[in-house]
Design the sequence.
C-alpha cells in the first residue's frame, strides 16, 4: 500500500500570496490525482497527472509531477479566499481500482 | 456530467438503530462504487468497494455485518450502518467510477452524509 505524505498539514496565508503544497510517496505512482474538499462536502477532482515531469495548469493552480513519479506539487498563484479548503492527493495504483488518499493540506486564505 | 448524489445529507439516530445511506450516480452508469469514512481533521479512509450484482469487497478492519452494502443497480449503492453506536458517528462519502471513461480510474464523489449517533 502506498504511503502518501502531504505537507504542510496546515497553511494560513493572506489573500494575494503564492503557496506550494507537496505530496510524496514511498513508491512510484502509476498516476496521481489532486482533489479539493470543502467542509461538509465530498472531494472534487482537480487534476490527474500521469507522466513523469508533467505540468498541468488550471487557472491559478499549477500541478507538477516529479520526474520519478514519486512526488507532486500544487502551486497556487495569488491565492483567493475561494481557494480555502482541504487539498488531497490520491493514488489509484491499488488493486480493485482503490484510491489511497493522503492526509491533506488544510489551506485557509484570509481576505 | 458525472454527478453523484447522497441521501440523506445529515442523519441523527439513537444508539442501536440502523441507518441506510444511498449513493446514486445521476447521469452515468457505475459498475463500481466506493464507500469512505472521514473523521474530523483526517483523510478519507476506504471502507469497501461496492460492485454491481456481486458482494462488496471490504477493507481490513471493516466489519461486514455492521456496514452492509448493496449495489443492486448500475446507478445505486446503499450503505446500512446496523446497530449504530456513538463511535460510528462520522462523515460517510461515496464515490463512483464512470464505466465508460478509460482514463486513470477517475472517481467522482458524492457530497457526503453526516451521521450522528446519540
Sequence:
Amino acid at each position: 500500500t502506498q504511503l502518501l505524505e502531504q505537507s504542510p498539514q496546515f497553511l494560513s496565508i493572506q489573500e494575494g500570496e503564492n503557496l506550494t503544497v507537496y505530496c510524496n510517496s514511498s513508491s512510484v505512482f502509476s498516476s496521481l490525482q489532486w482533489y479539493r474538499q470543502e467542509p461538509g462536502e465530498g472531494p472534487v477532482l482537480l487534476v490527474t497527472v500521469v507522466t513523469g515531469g508533467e505540468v498541468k495548469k488550471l487557472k491559478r493552480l499549477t500541478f507538477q509531477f516529479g520526474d520519478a513519479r514519486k512526488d507532486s506539487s500544487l502551486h497556487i498563484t495569488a491565492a483567493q479566499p475561494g481557494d480555502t479548503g482541504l487539498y488531497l492527493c490520491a493514488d489509484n495504483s491499488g488493486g480493485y481500482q482503490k484510491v489511497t488518499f493522503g492526509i491533506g493540506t488544510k489551506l485557509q486564505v484570509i481576505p | 456530467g458525472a454527478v453523484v448524489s447522497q441521501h440523506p445529507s445529515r442523519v441523527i439516530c439513537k444508539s442501536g438503530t440502523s441507518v441506510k445511506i444511498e449513493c446514486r450516480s445521476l447521469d452515468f452508469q457505475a459498475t463500481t462504487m466506493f464507500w469512505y469514512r472521514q473523521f474530523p481533521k483526517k483523510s478519507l479512509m476506504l471502507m469497501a468497494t461496492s460492485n454491481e450484482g456481486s458482494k462488496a469487497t471490504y477493507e481490513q478492519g471493516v466489519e461486514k455485518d455492521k456496514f452492509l452494502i448493496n449495489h443492486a443497480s448500475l446507478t445505486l449503492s446503499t450503505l446500512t450502518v446496523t446497530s449504530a453506536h456513538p463511535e460510528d458517528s462520522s462523515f460517510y462519502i461515496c464515490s463512483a467510477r464512470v464505466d465508460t471513461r478509460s482514463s486513470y480510474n477517475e472517481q467522482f464523489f458524492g457530497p457526503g452524509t453526516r451521521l450522528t449517533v446519540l
